[in-house]
Amino acid sequence: MDVRLSPEQIALRDAAAQVADRLGPSTVAALDDRERAAKLDAAVAATGWRELRVGTDDGGPLASGVEAAIVAEELGRGLADTALIGPTLAADLRRRVGAPPAATAETVVLRPDLTTLAAVVLPSATVAGRLPSGSPAVDVQGATAALALVPGPRPGPGPGPGPGPGPEQCALATIELAPGSSATPTDLTRPVAVPGEHAVPTTVEGQVELLSTDDLDAVTALGLALTAADLVGVMTGAVRLATGYARDRRQYGVAIGSFQAVQHLLADALVATEGSRSIARHAAWAVDALPPAEALAAAAAAKAYCARAARQVCEIAIQVHGGIGNTWECLAHVLLRRALLSADLFGGVGPNLTRVLDHRGIDTGGSRALR
Amino acid sequence: MHFGDSPEEAAFRARLREWLRDNNPGLPASSTSDDYWRGQAAWHHALYDAGFFGLSFPEAIGGQGRPSVYEVIVDDELSAAGAPPRPSLGYLVQGILEHGNQDVQQRLLPGIVSGRTRWCQGFSEPDAGSDLASLRTRAVRDGDEYVITGHKVWTSYSDDADLCLVLARTDPDVPRHKGLSAFAVPMRQPGVEQRPLRMINGITKEFGEVLLDGARVPAADMIGQPGEGWRLAMTVVSHEREPGELGYVARYTKVVNELVGAVRADPDRHGPEAVRDVAWAAVEAEMLRLHVCRRLSDRLDGIAHGPDGSIDKLLMTQVEQAVGHAALAVGTDSSLAVYLYSRAQSVMGGTSQVQRNLVATRILELPTS
Is residue B9 flagged as an active site residue? Predict the structure, then answer.
């Protein structure tokens, strides 16, 4: 056992940090700077960080979940307003069914409750069907298509593929994405799109294998590990932002960071961040190193912990900023908003505590299908 | 980055698992019953003699010189087997290794590591708790000995101990942090009186009072130089705050496993809130296990005595108290004792408030007022 980052992993982290710091939004106003955002997008595209889970000749991914999580964490810390997690998951899904990498930018579709990958509802035994109403495609910046699941044949008695969730195996469908949604998003850095209810999916081209339940568990584990890593990054950014403010801001003739009441808030924020870092790091490793059910349980524990911690830490960042923290121009709410979305993707506290209990053999009456 | 076992680690794990099948003494948790202490010495000896204690300590003092990450394997396997945790005394070893001279290390450390000499720690006093540097116990040189007079409190396991690591003032004329020295004081002598204190959960071993009235200690058993006591104390407490040094992960995981088992055995008896508390306790204990993996891996770059232990202590406290709340919600035979004991975790080894001060000023480098 040696859970230190390797020299290569440290180099990757530093490279991702550099891109995020140089081209990420350093102020709220910078979110509207399209030229900057385009440069960031181009820089991330040029590094190949969205293709870390593309398959190699032996069928395995180009890089492990650890590398993908390292990049996700740094881009989260720098509030990078470019797609990463969606395309990474889409590439992982394609690899698992043996489909060729996407020709255009692509992401994934989740169920309306955001907790699991969406499955296309099939009206009959054909592949044509539609998504459940409100199924969002996530992390859609620049993406023109999204992947959803198509339930495969069920084992046992009964006629062919049925409607609704619960398949033992799945294929994939691509859905074309219409540009942009108009509503003010939760996360100002990563838009979510809801494909039209009647968007007709087509199965991915080429000879593909069905996704097994194990594959689904592993992809879900990756989704949880990457969103947990994003949360660790956001928390790190929030602690840094609030600590800097506490050093600079003066009241009663001294820096507010010299007051114990403020110090203890920031200490709690750092402690929550470091605990999150430890458990999230394991989740990223587990994606490829442990059997899928174990990886899913590890990722669920990490996600539950990080989701709770991230909200606490970002709330502290707002509190330490006082009135300023409650204005649109302070970055603290951009961090909180990003944390809220990342917490919800693949489930926040509740669904992941359920997954943890499931794994420990405690039945909570929740659905075990398509976790 | 790799959380899995190397072939050598896997072989060690298998050997320990096999050994535990026949050698689990089935003691109650130290936090819930004084009965634990009836078997604690034998448990320490058995673990050590079989090669499962002191793994990362230097071979020169009876350890095995292995990487610290082996302690993670020990904690994993002890909790999986429902065995008692490993003895919590690594912080004494780290302090003496860092500050004691060769003679002291060779004479005193092998006994601590093997468990043949029992130790306790005499730092706090009735008027020197969080403000430890204000302590008033005096050590006065008398020939080849020092004579010690004072009152120590919160001295865990003092009635079992052969020796006490006493922090005493040897020079009242210098600034208070500079006039302290540390000694290994024999407990079984006329000048030492030991009184148990009863904790809120009823156990008497965790807290003790030690009255020193002319207790004598050879000058050669001073640990470190005269005036080095404060620095030694800081080294000791920095490690006393590390769950990796204490082996507490095994204690928490063992309780969590029992709670999960209780809920699984009778799911209808437990409401959703209790089940949620158990889920959180499981997640928290797992977080701490993985945090220890990270901190002990960092030791592959060399052992540090810095302020990071305060982060560990605050995480450990959060875990102990989450486990305590889950125990209370589920209601097993030892639940109340587990819960009540957990309240002390945010006080012992430096209160959570002191830890937050340290995190803020020494790690976040916020200004002091």
Answer: no
